[in-house]
Amino acid sequence: MDIKKRESLDWFFKQAFKATGLLTICMLGGIFLMLLYNSIAFAMDIKPVDFFTGYQWNPGNANGKYSILPLLVSTGLVAAGSMIIAVPLGIFTAAFLSEFAPPKLQAVLKPVIEMLAAIPSVAIGFLGIVLVGPGIAKLFGIQNGLNALNGSILLAVMALPTIITISEDAINAVPKSYREASLALGADKWTTLFKVTIPAAYPGLIAAVMLGLGRALGETMTVLMATGNAAAMPRGFLDSIRTITATVAIEMGEVPYRTTHYFALFAIAAVLFLITLSINLLGEYFANRLRKFQA
Question: Which CATH class for the 49-294 domain?
Answer without folding.
Answer: mainly alpha
